[in-house]
Amino acid sequence: MKFLLVCGLAGLLGLLGAGLVGIWPRPEFPDPDPVAKAWGVANAVAAVVLGVRLWDTIFEVLVYVVAMVGVRFFLLGMRWQGELPPVAETPLLRRSADLLLGPILVFALYLAASGHLGPGGGFPAGAILGSALLLLALAKGVERLSAELYEPRLERLEYVAVVFLLFLGAVVLVLGVRTAAAFVVANLLVAVEVAIGAWAVLHRFASARGEV
Amino acid sequence: MEALSGLSLAVVLAALGLWVMVSRRNLVWKLLGLGVASGGSILFLVALSHRPGVRPPILGLGPGPAADPLPQALVLTAIVIRFATLALALALVILLTEHRHTQDARRLEEEE
Fold first, then answer.
1. Model confidence over B33-73: pLDDT tens digits?
2. Using the beta-carbon criterion (under 8 Å), do A67 and B88 form an inter-chain contact?
3. Full-prediction pTM beyond 0.95?
4. Which DSSP helix (H) or strand (E) runs through A10?
5. Domains of chain A, residue spans
6. Residue B57: which of A1, A45, A124 has the nearest Cβ?
7. Alpha-carbon torsion, ordered B38, B75, A157, A187, to 10 deg
8. Is the domain B2-110 a CATH 1.10.287.3510 member?
């Protein structure tokens, strides 16, 4: 087993070395500007994610939702019974997390709403929102944060966002509508869905650990 | 040279993750290795889409050739999917630990 692994790693490094020497010519990049112009947006990455490869994105969102549902299903009713290590109280981290939450929220909303014009989009915005909630949970403890924030209604909002996203995808794919407004709405929906999914999974793991 | 260093770092990360996945026996360690290896592959795709002197693939950022937007679009979804599948795998490991009282892959195989 170890021998096979060493052979595989040596093969990987050999491939890298061969690539660096220049055995395979690297192809010219195609011009992405016509793609962006055809979909009426400035960011070619957004035009690819939500335009040319919209089917991929829709099914990717579905995979995300199914994985989140699976986490909820497997951790249902599971509770760690042992003793939990005490969480250190750090006023500095708690205060700075409170101060940072507002700017992070605004930044994530900005990224989601302007994803069709520049760098950004729904997925990074959702990841930023989710990591902001994770920062808050680390600083204040999941128990206090979930008393403030957690509601089963939030999880329902995630499914509503997915349904609206599917509806929007149908409008774009079947009717052939190509506007920047569809990109803005889709980015916001994806951000909401990813952030709520991340927060719900964090809450579910914490409750399986016996913290909530 | 910048792209080259990104590519070599990506391959080193993937090799590190694969090594951890095979050599460690704890399932959580294996999942950590999987995360590192997939981070290496993501970095590989991003580094491939960059060449010295290209501009970002956004309209109105000057003349010259633009970077390829396709690997970045792939990576965008791959990161989120990686998070979702890692969370699912960790939930499964928790379930396994609850039922079999071990996270050792070899012992789990022997008990079969």
1. 999 999 999 998 888 877 777 888 888 777 778 888 888 88
2. yes
3. no
4. helix A2-21
5. 32-78+87-208
6. A45
7. 170
8. yes
